[in-house]
Amino acid sequence: MLAIYSTKHMGRTYNTNTTVYTGLISGYTIETTSGAGINLTQQSTTLDNILNIITSKSTLKRVSLRLYAQNMMHGDPDHDNNYIQASSYKALLHITPKEVLKLIDKKDEKKTIANLLAYEKPNSKNFVFGLFNWNHPDYSYGSLFNKIKVNRIGSSDMIEIRFAAGDPGIAYNTLKILNEEFIEQYQELRFGETNNVIKFFEEELAKLKRKLELSEDSLTEYNLKNRIINYGEQTKQVAAQTSLYEQKCEEFLLEYNGAKTLIRELEKRMDSHTRSLRNNADFISKMQKITTLTSKITDIETFNKDNSSTEQDLKSYKNQLKKAEEDFNNFAEKYSNQRYTKEKIASEEILEQWFVQMLEMEKADAKLKLMESRKGLLDDKYVFFSPIGNTIKRKDREINFTEQNYMSMLNSLNVARLRQKNLQMTSATLRIINPPVYPVAAEATNRKSIVMAVFFGSIIAILGFFLIIELLDRTLRDKMRAERLTSTKIIGAFPGNEIGRFRNFSKTRNQISARFLGNTILAYLPENKKKIINLLSTESGDGKSFIGKQLEEHWNSIGLNTKYISWNEDFSKDSRDFLLAKSAYNLCNVAEDVDILIVEYPPLKECATPKTLINEAGLNLFIAKANKTWKLTDQILLNQVKQTGSESSVLLCLNKAENCVVESFTGQLPPYNKLNNFLYRYSQFGLTASE
Question: Model-level pTM?
Answer without folding.
Answer: 0.47
